[in-house]
Amino acid sequence: MAILGYVTSDEIVAFMQMIKPTFAAGEINELIVNSIYEFINGKMGQSATVTEEVMLLDGDGNDYVYAEKIPIVSIRRIASIAADGTETPFTLMGANRNVWWDERTGRIWISYVDETGEEDTAAVFGDFPKSVRVEGTFGSVSTNLVKQIQLLMILKQYSIVQPKSYATDIVEEKIGRYSYKLASASNLAEANQRKGLDGWIAYLMEELPNDNYMVLESI
């Protein structure tokens, strides 16, 4: 069984070692991690997935096309395909860059500048099927909020099955712009600044609908 999650094995180990310093990768319970991942996805109605793609897009004689999958995480190659199959790659960076893209909408467009410094508006993609090749990484990655929720829920499960090894009343940690304090989940009021583990999980879960947790890596 492979580990499914918004956090990596290394992140799980680093987090759990704050509670149990001897925690090792071999102690990761894949059933616990995967079930929590599926639970969070069910709450959100979506999941973070990133894949490598090679797309053959249909040009229509304009200077732009749209990627078939969004958002765009990164692009490593874009080429114009002639009717005879010959490929001419575009320049993706530097002073001679001649193609651009919008990560969120998936729009990819040509922007040539001639010797006079003026934009060449005659540059277009071929007007026939599969005239543009795009290779890159597409999909969404998770924010610190959803990572933190999964880590806290993993800790919660371990504290249930091994309460003597995973005390949850001694840790204060911050991940990105989100911070939390763990305390014994006794009679602490929900409005109290210091929440128990259950209280913090519930609080952060309420934040999920307001958090754009499907974010883009910068190119």
Could you explain the architecture of this structure?
It is a single chain. By secondary structure, the chain is an alpha+beta fold. The chain folds into two domains: 9-47 and 147-215, no CATH class; 50-139, no CATH class. It is 24% helix and 25% strand. It contains four helices and 13 strands. The strands form five sheets. It has a four-stranded antiparallel sheet, with no helix packed on it. Helix 2 crosses helix 3. It is elongated. The protein starts with 8 loop residues before the first helix and ends with a strand. Mean pLDDT is 80; it is low at 184-189 and 211-219.
Overview features:
disordered C terminus; 2 domains; three-stranded antiparallel sheet; 13 strands; 219 residues; 4 helices; alpha+beta
Tell me the radius of gyration: 24 Å
- The number of E-state strands comes to 13
Q: Could you say which structural class the secondary elements and strand pairing correspond to?
A: alpha+beta
Largest sheet: spatial strand order: 1-9-3-4
Summarize the amount of helix as a percent range.
10-25%
Largest beta-sheet characterization: 4 strands, antiparallel
Number of domains: 2
Q: What general outline do the C-alpha atoms trace?
A: elongated
Kindly state the mean pLDDT as a whole number?
80
The total count of helices amounts to 4
Q: Are there runs of 5+ residues with pLDDT below 50, and where?
A: 184-189, 211-219
